[in-house]
Amino acid sequence: MSDVKMATPKPAAQGNRAGKPKNSSNFLTNLIIVAACVAAGIIVFNFVLGNANNFHDGATRDKPSNFMGTMYSGGFVVPILLATLLTLLSFIVERALTIVKAKGRMDSGEFVRKVQYHLANKNVQAAIAECDKQAGSVGNVMRAGLVKYDEMVNSRELDTDQKIAGIQKEIEEATALELPMLEKNLVFLSTIASCATLLGLFGTVMGMIRSFAAMANAGAPDAGALASGISEALINTALGISTSFLSIIAYNFFTTIIDGITYGIDESGFTLTQSFVANYK
Questions:
Q1: Are 203 and 240 in contact (CB under 8 A)?
Q2: Per-residue model confidence (pLDDT) at position 17
Q3: pLDDT tens digits, residue range 9-20?
Q4: What ranges do the domains of the chain cover?
Q5: Is the pLDDT reported for residue 223 higher than 90?
Q6: CA nearest neighbour of 260 among 97, 92, 102
Q7: Does the reported pTM lie above 0.85?
Q8: N or C: which terminus of the chain has fewer CB atoms within 10 Å of its end residue's CB?
Q9: What angle separates helix 124-134 from helix 108-120, to the nearest 10 degrees?
Q10: 51 exposed, middle or buried (CB, 10 Å; 0-12, 13-18, 19+)?
């Protein structure tokens, strides 16, 4: 998550204008991550799972001797599912690092109470110092509001309602910079949660087609082909479901944390406006 400097309203506006190049850069970065995961999935499938040592018949690869060989027998859907799983893990790590940083170094409730204390004593600079210590999204938004708060305290040209409106506007602008950074890339987790299950189901269907084809052979059915088809179906089902399960857990975990941060941002905005009304009517 990028640091947002908000000493005055102008840098906040510059941050908005800088959003488009950042979005282009993020798209390119995400594309590179996905492409790398696809390549890694193919490599793992062919050279790790498909290693001749994982099969009783060596390079023929028809008789798996261990779990990795069994996974290889899952067919061409397996590398796609592996790429999906690796993509999921990549974005889980990326979101974890970003959201942990966004939480800051101090609990939002404790932070807001300290700011309230300093504002009650009309010490705005001490409150701003607390924002620097918090160093998270709540602190960034609160800092932007406090800078405007300090400006409104010294203003003689506006009435109280106009000053409060100015503080609220500054908080809204700062929030508009912070929230997209928190929610970025969560769409990958929600998409994978759905697509992994469908990919697993597709692999299952392909495996069952092979199984029924083996059973339909004239004379004695090919037991090896029948077992291979069933194995392909079950491997794809297991890999798809496990990937989807992990994605759902990660998505819900991150959105819960983001909801807490959002609540802290809302509380900080309410604190500033109420404090201004109480101290500078």
A1: yes
A2: 38
A3: 333 333 443 334
A4: 9-106+179-279
A5: no
A6: 102
A7: no
A8: C
A9: 170
A10: middle
